[in-house]
Design goal:
The chain has 369 residues and is of the alpha/beta class. It folds into 2 domains: 134 residues, Rossmann fold (3-Layer(aba) Sandwich), CATH 3.40.50; 202 residues, 3-Layer(bba) Sandwich (FAD/NAD(P)-binding domain). It has 14 helices and 16 strands. The protein starts with 10 loop residues before the first strand and ends with a strand. Bound molecules: flavin-adenine dinucleotide (FAD). The site of flavin-adenine dinucleotide has 31 residues, from helix 1, helix 2 and helix 7.
């Protein structure tokens, strides 16, 4: 029998998931110097994962990476199978018996429950469903969001929270020229939201925003970003962390918060208000969300390794719409379908690059970007 990976016996690989990690895994295999046939298997009809359904429509440059993926997909050694849900339409065992290696690149599409009392009330949503909805994801297009109240609360201070905040805060006319889903544009055009509160469990020097995204929030037309000066007072340990900040991002974000605190708010504008050191503890309301209650936190532990601990102080925000969770957890095809072969280790990360073709055979990989 010809050597695996030679012209007479090409290595056959099933790559499950066609987001960035699926395409980069395929690219690495194509460039590995072996003869290879790749089946890219995707549960949605169309490829690109969160590049299509996650990245915000008003950031089109970030979506341009799909041009690279197009080039990979056009390689004659790659075949795309859309609308095939591994674990439902085909089992992993079937893929293993028909391919010499399987690479799982299924992304992280589930929301982690915060187990907050009231988080299932109408008006409380995951950021993930909102993002998928405005990006036209076929499984989310029928969701509805009520923009009839004036106040929205977003829990979390990273770039997904920034995306959600920007889409809520931007004048709808500025979204018209983007590829935002038509149904979302129509509903956002009727939005009465005036105040958006963005709440983080840690302090102003520990947020996960990139300074670029945060700066953009401060420059939206017809909107002002605000922070209370009291919330920006730093402890010595915060200063120490800032002075050792490896890439300067935390310091830049802190400077931006200071600017937001000092700029005079203009009347009649939408407002984005940042709050720090607060964790949600309860969502209140009878038929729908009325109030999100928070505990005040303090940070304990060593520099760069501090954790938020609840104090007895509390705060409440009245609102009609809230996004209490958007952290994602990794998914893999359903466990039952996997039947847990002994060599399957979902925690394992392996590179597809620089290995002999034989070493791929009968191996299951989980690629995590
Ligand atoms: C709201 C949001 C905004 C973001 N914005 C940016 C940004 O601006 N810039 C940036 O660099 N990163 C951004 N990211 C992060 C980036 O999108 C992810 O890091 C990246 O998409 C992860 O790639 P992935 O291939 O692992 O997962 P995904 O992109 O999620 O792709 C996984 C694919 O696997 C498919 N799949 C899942 N299960 C199965 C199954 N059982 N059978 C077949 N197919 C399956 C899914 O349908 C999906 O197409 C953003 C993420 C989110 C959530």
């Amino acid at each position: 029998m010809a050597r695996v990976g030679s012209a007479g016996n090409p290595l056959t690989v099933a790559v499950v998931g066609s987001g960035p990690s699926g395409f980069y895994a395929a690219e690495a295999l194509l460039n590995a110097g072996i003869d290879v046939r790749i089946h890219l298997i995707e549960k949605l009809p169309v490829p690109f994962g969160l590049v299509r359904y996650g990245v915000a429509p008003d950031h089109p440059k970030l979506k341009q990476v799909s041009l690279v993926f197009d080039r990979i997909a056009q390689d004659a050694r790659v075949r795309y199978f859309g609308n095939v849900n591994v674990g439902c339409d085909v089992t992993l065992d079937e893929l293993k018996s028909t391919h010499q290696a399987v690479v799982l690149c299924c992304g992280a599409e589930l929301d982690r429950d915060l187990n907050l009392p009231g988080e299932d009330l109408p008006g409380s949503h995951t950021a993930t469903e909102f993002v998928a909805w405005y990006n036209g994801h076929p499984h989310f297009r029928d969701r509805s969001f009520d923009f009839s109240s004036e106040v929205a609360v977003i829990i979390g201070q990273g770039n997904v929270a920034a995306d959600v905040c920007r889409i809520l805060a931007k004048p709808v006319d500025e979204l018209r020229s983007t590829d935002i889903a038509k149904h979302a544009l129509e509903q956002l055009a009727c939005s009465r939201i005036r105040e958006i509160h963005v709440v983080g469990r840690r302090g102003p020097t520990q947020t996960k925003f990139s300074s670029k995204e945060l700066r953009e929030l401060g420059r939206l037309s017809n909107c002002s970003a605000r922070v209370s000066e009291e919330e920006l007072i730093l402890a010595a340990i915060d200063q120490a962390e800032l002075s050792l900040d490896p890439d300067g991002n935390a310091a830049q974000c802190y400077q931006l918060f200071q600017q937001f605190a000092h700029e005079a708010p203009a009347a009649g504008k939408r407002v984005i208000q940042f709050h720090f050191l607060k964790s949600p503890c309860l969502i209140l309301g009878e038929s729908r969300v009325k109030v999100v209650a928070f505990v005040q936190n303090e940070l304990t532990g060593e520099p760069f390794n501090r954790v938020a601990q609840a104090t007895k102080a509390t705060m409440e925000l009245s609102c009609g719409l809230c996004f209490p969770k958007h952290r994602l957890q990794r998914t893999a095809p359903r466990r039952r379908a996997l039947r847990r072969p002994s060599w399957f280790d979902p925690q394992r990360k392996r590179s597809c690059v620089g290995r002999s073709a034989e070493s791929y055979v009968r191996t299951l990989y989980v690629r995590m970007d």
